[in-house]
Structure formats: structure tokens, C-alpha cells
Amino acid sequence: MRKHKDAIGFFDELRAVENILIPHSGFTKVMSRLRKAIEFSQQGAEPRHTLLVGESGTGKTWLAQHFASLYPPRLNPDDVIGPIPVLIVETPAIPSLKGLAEAMLMALGDPLFFKGTAAEKRNRALDLLRRRNVEFLVLDEFQHFLDHGKFDSLIAVSDWLKRFIDDASVPCLLMGLPRCEGILQVNEQLRRRFSSRLKLSAFSLDTMEGEREFRALVHQIDKSLPTSELSKLADVDMARRLYFASNGLIGYLRPLITAAYELMVIEKASKLDATIFEQTFIDVIWKDGLKSLNPFNKAFQFRQLNQIGEPFAPAPVHVRSVRARYRS
């Protein structure tokens, strides 16, 4: 019985670590903008739409999920999901207007999401948005349309989106990699609707201010961890190792620290240290991160791991020039 109780306590603590809020300046700015958008809309103001871009790992999706958690779906008396104040829809990897409408219907709980024509699915999605009392719409990974669609389809997508958000009459957050801004280039009316634009960037140690912000971030995380003593994550040496291990990206820093905490508990340690992080880096970031290629190893040279074959090497991107095609 004691082991069972301990296991329950461990998983409760692990979930708490996974859900630690990381309120850095970029996060705070975006959250403030989104809160104002939904509050103004609730008071009858016209919907305020926002474009949020950022490289992979900067925390866009996690931020949207946190925002949605502040306005959770509510159950009706029959224990069936009723109102969905914030609806998050992920753009299909191989996108089409029909597929996007299907993704919306799935998020809205339509069991027959696959039924009907593209126009019928669009109309059902609008109907369900109203019936579910959706107050805020999030469309994630929208760059897929730019990466995989044809140029003519971009014009259709931008026009479809413009008409859909106009008919939905709720604030919309459009999210994706920086190149998704190219979709707005082909439709001036859509561009005006998303004139409010925000960007989440990776942390940087190139300036004193950047290093202070990153150290303040890991210090806040350190204070939030359920350890018996502080792990001194904000000490200059450790903070820099954490930076190079995550490349300054929240999307890598969060799972690294969560896995390190899990290993700490298993090894019955009282705090996180370089030895724990060294193993965790291999486990969750890069299996080939050994010796001088591991930021927590004494032989590490304190450089970004962005060479070919390393975890943060730039990924090749093959995207046509929207502007050039538009002019032709």
C-alpha cells in the first residue's frame, strides 16, 4: 500500500512539473493580447485577429493550449461536452480546404466529420461553432498550406479563411512558422484582418539582457520544482549548459527538465545536477550527445549544436516564393 501511495504521489508531482508555467516576456505579451481579444469580443467588440509566428520549439502550441486551459470546455447535464470557449484546430499535414473543415469538425466533436462536400463541411463547422459557443478560434501549423499547396490553392485558402472568420465572428489566432506569413501576401483583405502580428523567438545569450532573461526563466522553473532544495539552475555555468542543451527553445527545455526530475526521483537525489542532466540529454534530446557533444559534460566546448548531424542543425526548407509567383 505504501508503494502504491508513493507511486501516486510521484505521478502527481511529475504532472505538476510538466505543467509548470513559464511566464517569460514573450509568453506574457502574447497571453495579454489573447486575453484582451476574447474579453473585448465578449463585450460585443468586433473580433480582433492575431498572427503568431515562431520557429519550431518556441512554444506556440503549448502557449495556445495553456490559453485554452483558462477557458475549459464545460459539460452539460448529460456529461456531454457542451460549450467549447477556445477551439484549437491543427492544420492537416497534407492540407486541403476539405481537410481543414474536417479537422474543425473533429475538434468540435462531430462524429460524422468525414461526411459531405467541402462546402457542406464548412457550413456544419460554422453551425457547430455557434452551437458550441466557441468564443476564440486557434488555427495551428498553417504553414502547411504554403509548403504543400499549389499557388492557385493559396488564393483559394486565403479567400476561404477570410470568409470563414468573417462568418464565424469570433477572434482568431493564426499560428505557424514564420513563412506562413506568405499566405497573407496573396490576399490584402486577409492581411488587414491579421494586421496584429506577434512573434515568439528562441532565447539568446548574445547579449547581457538575453542571458539575464534566460537565467531568470530557469530560476523561476527551479523555484517551482518540488525538490527538497534549489538545484541552482540559474548559476551562470548551469544556465549556459541548459541553454546549449535546449538551443534556447522552450520546446526542448521543458521535456529536458521534466525528464531530469523523473530521473532525480528514481535515483533518490535531492536536486538536479549536471550528472542527471547529462544522462537526460542523451535520453530525450540527442542519443549521440556523448562527452564533448554533451552540454553537461566537463569536456563540452560551450557552442551551439547546430552542425550537420547535430540536434539543432537547420532543417532544409523548400518553399516557393509566393510573392514572385503572385507577380507573374
Can you offer a commentary on this structure?
There is one protein chain. By secondary structure, the protein is α/β, with parallel strands linked by helices. The chain has two domains: 110 residues; 176 residues, Rossmann fold (3-Layer(aba) Sandwich). Helices cover 49% and strands 8% of the residues. It has 13 helices and five strands. The chain has a five-stranded parallel beta sheet. Helix 10 packs across helix 11. The chain is globular, with a radius of gyration of 22 Å. The termini are far apart. The N terminus and C terminus are likely disordered.
Highest-level CATH class of the largest domain: Alpha Beta
Biggest sheet character = 5 strands, parallel
Rg measurement, Å: 22 Å
- The count of strands amounts to 5
Q: Count of helical segments?
A: 13
Shape: globular
CATH fold field value of the largest domain = Rossmann fold
Total individual domains: 2
Report how far apart the termini are: 73 Å
Helix fraction by DSSP (H/I, runs of at least 4): 40-55%
Strand order of the largest sheet: 2-3-4-1-5
Structural class: alpha/beta
Order of helix and strand elements from N to C terminus? HHEHEHHEHHEHEHHHHH
Strand composition percent: 5-15%
Mean pLDDT rating: 88
Specify the CATH architecture of the largest domain.
3-Layer(aba) Sandwich
